[in-house]
Amino acid sequence: MILQQELINKIKDYFDLNVYETKVWLALLTKGVASVGEIASISKVPRSRVYDVLESLEKKGFTIVRMGKPVKYLGIKPELILERIKMDVKQEADEKIQTLSKVKETEEFNQLNELYRNGINPVKKEEISSSITGKSNISNFIRDIIRNAEKEVIICLDAEETKNKFKLFYETISILKDMKIKIKMALYGDVKLINELEKKFGVKIEKTEIKAKFFIVDKNQILFYITDDKKDKSQEDIAVWLNSDFFVESFVSLFEKTLK
Fold first, then answer.
1. For 167-206, what is each residue's pLDDT tens digit?
2. Distance of alpha carbon 193 from alpha carbon 205, whole angstroms
3. Which of 83, 141, 207, 208 is the most exposed place for a label (fewest CB within 10 A)?
4. What is the Cα–Cα distance from 189 to 236, expressed in whole angstroms?
5. Which residues contact residue 76 at a Cβ distance below 8 angstroms, ignoring those fewer than 6 apart?
């Protein structure tokens, strides 16, 4: 069997293997049980290198040795490999999260905050603004500012998009409820759908004719979208974040007047 280069490249990336490791593992899966000579023949990996590659794959759990004469090797079932890798990744992520969660308690983190507050050119609150590009980056930023809310969060969105991202917004609203944060929500779109979402979220939702997407936190921060992916599916999401009491309070005042 000739191993296709496209398959080799994809499997290599999926399972974090090098080219030789991928070729040898695929050869083993093709043959089932194989000797070094058979593996070299199928994989087209030089026989002198096959020994080292098999040793590496054995350490990573992709193959096991079947003793006898000659010694033969058995490729491990892909499903088992995938599940093990997923568990390893999850364990590494959990350990990383635990480590990061302890960073706030360190003296070094206190020093970072001190540098931020009292640097040579400290950041002025009224000068803070930035643009954020990409759905993932925007979602993460929204999550961060909402979790730092102290009093109130105002949300204005498209009803259909809110339905499509129900799980994300349900989790966000649940977090705010747990934090005892006041929630004001307005959606534009189908009235029936808005009523359904109101029941599912368990919060009062106003219907608005304003076709805008924004989040306001404590009337001093606002993040609003400046792109509309409904018009152009290929367009990347872009949002702008402003931290300005004067601007945001004025914006909130205008928004609340439209709801009345």
1. 888 988 998 998 899 999 999 999 999 999 999 999 999 9
2. 11
3. 83
4. 23
5. 61, 62, 63, 64
* Pair 241, 130: CB distance under 8 Å: yes
76-107 pLDDT tens trace: 888 888 888 888 888 888 888 888 888 888 88
Q: Which two tokens stand for residue 22?
A: 């991928």
Distance CA 220, CA 237 (A): 23
Helices (DSSP H) in the chain: which residue ranges? 5-15, 19-31, 36-43, 47-60, 78-101, 107-118, 135-147, 159-164, 166-178, 191-201, 245-259
Q: Give 157's contacts (C-beta < 8 A, 6+ positions apart).
A: 169, 185, 186, 187, 188, 213
Q: Contact at 8 Å (CB) between 151 and 182? A: yes
DSSP per-residue letters across 93-159? HHHHHHHHHTGGGSHHHHHHHHHHHHSSSPPPGGG-EEEEESHHHHHHHHHHHHHT-SSEEEEEEEH
pTM: 0.53
DSSP-derived 3-state class of residue 31? helix
Say which residues have a Cβ less than 8 Å from residue 145's Cβ, sequence separation at least 6: 215, 217, 221, 223, 241
Token couple for 202? 């368990």
Give 235's DSSP letter. Answer: S
Peptide bond into 70 cis (omega under 30): yes
Domain architecture of the chain: domains with CATH? 5-78 (1.10.10.10), 127-259 (3.30.870.10)
